[in-house]
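cache lookup: miss for this entity combination. No prior model stored, computing from scratch. Input as submitted by user K.M.:
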Amino acid sequence: MKIECRNVSKAYGRGQGRFWALRDATLTVAKGTHLAIVGPSGSGKSTLLHLLGCLDVPTEGEVLLDGVSRASLSDRQVSLVRRARMGFVFQQYYLNEAMTALQNVLLPLELGRVADRRKKAIAALSWVGLESKLGSLPGEMSGGEQQRVAIARAVAHEPELVFADEPTGNLDSENGNKALEVLQALHDERGTGLVLVTHDDRVAARAMQTLRVRDGRLT
Amino acid sequence: MWIVFTNARKRKARLVMTVAGIAIGVATLFALLASSAGIQRGLEREIGGLGAHILLLPVGCPYTLTLALMQGADTLDYIPQDRLTDVRAAHNVRLAVPVVVGRVRVDDEMTPIYGTTDEILQLKRWGIAHLDGAVVGSDVASRLGLTAGSRITLSFYAQHEVDVIRILPRTGGRDDTFVFVPLEVAQNVLALTDELSAVLVQTENVERVAQTRQTLGRLANLQAVPPSEVFDMLVGLFGSMASTLMLITGVAIVVGVLTTMNTMTMAVYERKAEIGLLRAVGATRGDVFRLFVVESLWVSLVAGVLGVGVGYVVTQLLPRTTGFGLAAAPHFSPSYIGICLLVAAGVGTVAAVYPALMAARMEPIKALRAL
C-alpha cells in the first residue's frame, strides 16, 4: 500500500484567525518505509501524520491511496482501509480503561470481524512481551506496558502501515526504548511501513529516513 | 457485543439512574394494564354473576343502584313487592327472583346480607334444595369463624336468629362477602316490609329480551335494565379513568426518553476520545452509531424487565377493590410483558438516535483531540 501527499496544506479556523498548520507538503510513504517526522511541537508534524493516516482531510492538495484520490472515497471506504491496512499508536495510548489488555487489542479485530481474532490478539500481546498481562486492566499496568498494549492493538491485524504519534512521549527512556524496539522489529521482521512523529532525536536516529517540519513546512 | 457491556459498566451510578428512569415508566404502564384488565374482568364476573337477563330496579340512577346491589349497600328506593305478580305475569318471563340487600350486624359485625327466595337456586349453584337458613360467603365465614351448623344472629331494626346451612366455596367475587338469607328474614331485619331492592328476571326466549324489557319497563315504580348495558357503561367509566392514567404514564415514558437521551448525549461527549480511537482503528460511522444504539437498547431492556417486576409487585400491593367496592384482582397476561418490553425498547432506541448520530458524525481527529 502506498500513500502519497501532493502539495497538501491544512488550515484551522477561518478568516482573520486562520492558521496554516501545514503548507504544501509532498511525500510518499508505503510498505517498507521507515520514516521519522521530527520538529518542534506545533510545527505541523502531527497534522501531517493525521493526513497520511486519513484521520483528517487536507484544506488544499490531494492525498492518494494506492493512486486513488482520498476525496473520491466515501468515509466508509476510508474507514475500512484504516481498519484493514493501517495501525495507529498515540502518545496518550487511548486504551479503554474498562477493558482488559486483551479486550483492547481485540477491539479493532472485532470491528473487522477478523478470523481467529482471539488468537491474533494473544499473539500480538505476546509479541510485545505482555503474554502474562492479558487480563489486566490499563489501570493496573505501567505506562510502558500500556503503550505496548496500544502497539499490540495497532499491529494485531498485521497492517501494512503503522502510524505512531510521539509513541515515547509519555515514557521514560527505558520503557521508551522497549516500545521503539518493538516498532523497529515490526519493520525489520514484517516489512511493515512505519511512520513516526517525534521530537526525540534518539527516535529519529533509528529511522531510515528523517523528515523535518518547521512552521508547517517540510525542510 | 461485549464492547457494549464493558462500556456500560464504566459509569455505574448513572447507569442505575437511567435504568430507574425508564423502569418507573414501564412499571406504571404494567400496573395500569394489569389493573384495568382486572377491573374489567371483575365487572364482567360480577354482572355476569347476577345471572339475570333483565334487572328490575327502583326508579333512580341504574348504575348507582346496580353497584349498590353488588356491594350490599342500601338502595334508598325500593320496588313495591306487589309488582312481582305483574312481573311474573308478563309475557316471556320465566323466572323473577326478588332481592333485598342491606347491611346489618351479623354476630355484631356489619355485613351485607342478601335476602331472596328459593328461586335464586335456579340462578346460582349452591347445592341446596331450599333456602331455609343462611348461606354464607367464604370471606364472611372465615372472618366470623362460621361453619355449616353454626347459628348466627342478624340484627338491625329487628333481631333474627338463623342457622348456617352452607358455606360457599371461594369465588373471588362479591358473593364471598354476603350472607344470603330467606327474603322475609332480610325484610324483617331491615324493616323493609313488602319492599324489594331489585328483581332478577330470566326470560323464556333470550332473543326477545328487548321486547320483554319494554313491557316490564312500563310497570309503575320500577325500571328494567339489561345487565350488559350497566356493564358497558361501567367499563366505559373505568375506560375513561384508564385513559387519564394512560396519559400520565405517557408523560412518565416521555420523561424516560428524555432522561435516557440526556445520559446518552453526555456519554457521547465524555467518550469523545474513545469514539475517536474507534474511528482511527477503522470503525465506520455506522459502527459507532450502532454501538450507541445497541448500548441504549440493552440498558432500556434491562430497565424494562425491572419495570415489569416492580409493576407486578406494586399491583399486588394495590387494594383489591375499586372505589365502588368491586373486587378487582389485577389480571396478568404475557402480552402485557411483551407490550412493556417493546415500549422499553422503543424508549431506548428513540432516545439513542440523536446522541448516536452525534457520535457518528464526529471527525476522528477532533474526537481524539478532545482529551
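stored under new cache key. The mean pLDDT of chain B is 87.
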